[in-house]
Write a structure and sequence with these properties.
This protein is α+β, with helices and mostly antiparallel strands and about 240 residues long. It has seven helices and 19 strands. About 25% of the residues lie in helices and about 35% in strands. About 0% of the residues have low confidence.
Length: about 240
């Protein structure tokens, strides 16, 4: 397997290369700036994985990702956890805080190693996660980051061109993704987009009112009905009955 390291701290880059070599990774190059990484990725075949420090000497790695479509899977490495929310908008499989905990890196590499298959040791990335669906979301809570398990989310909703999570603790959190993006990464057996503004969790449906329009009330929420779009009523009832 091949890897590229984008890291502006020489000792950190060398240490990461050494760890990767222990798992039979071939490190093609260590790049220490946005400029060098951008040029290399434009001119060379992309590796299996890019280990990418977020804050570099001449900018941050998101400048690279906004210019180039990287075919590789990405592991972000950084000492600055305020970048975590932005990092998960990209094609990343993990986010490691520096100094990198060797045991966490080892667990990641061991999991990747188990996915090698076929004559060319290609990875079946669709099996990387225990589920192909997102099982949690990382959100900002004051000055900290908070992981919200998918089972604790009553619904996702959009308002004023922003998207939010509403949890079973009656709290809402901003999430930097569109409802369309979220629809593509959650289990559609559990969640349904009832209209333009709401995606709801089946586990929290308390009551379905089917009069002239289908309306839904949810557990843990003060009495309030969420309307299902007319165009989605038939599909909703099929989904809800399963």
């Amino acid at each position: 397997m091949t890897a590229v390291i984008i890291e502006d701290e020489i000792p950190a880059g060398i240490r990461l290369e050494r760890l990767l070599n222990q798992y039979d990774f071939e490190v093609l190059v260590i790049l220490n700036s946005v400029k060098k990484a951008t040029i290399w990725l434009k001119e060379n075949k992309h590796p299996d994985i890019v280990f990418m420090d977020i804050k570099l000497r001449d900018g941050n790695c998101f400048e690279i990702l906004d210019k180039i479509k990287i075919d590789s899977k990405i592991v972000f490495t950084t000492a600055f956890d305020e970048y975590a929310l932005n990092a998960f908008n990209y094609n990343s499989i993990d986010y490691l805080l520096k100094p990198i905990d060797e045991s966490k890196l080892n667990r990641l590499l061991e999991k990747i190693a188990t996915l090698k298959s076929g004559f060319h040791n290609e990875i079946s990335w669709s099996n990387f996660n225990e589920s192909t669906f997102v099982n949690s979301y990382l959100v900002a809570s004051g000055t900290h980051l908070k992981k919200i398990p998918i089972q604790d989310i009553l619904y996702f909703f959009s308002e004023n061109n922003a998207t939010f999570i509403f949890t079973n603790e009656n709290r809402q959190f901003l999430i930097p993704k569109s409802l369309e993006k979220i629809e593509g990464e959650i289990d559609n057996n559990k969640f349904f987009r009832i209209n333009r503004k709401f995606i709801i969790n089946k586990d929290y449906i308390h009551h379905v009112k089917n009069a002239s329009r289908i309306k839904i009330s949810l557990k843990n929420v003060e009495l309030f009905y969420y309307e299902v779009s007319i165009s989605k009523e038939k599909r909703f009832m099929q989904w809800f009955s399963i």
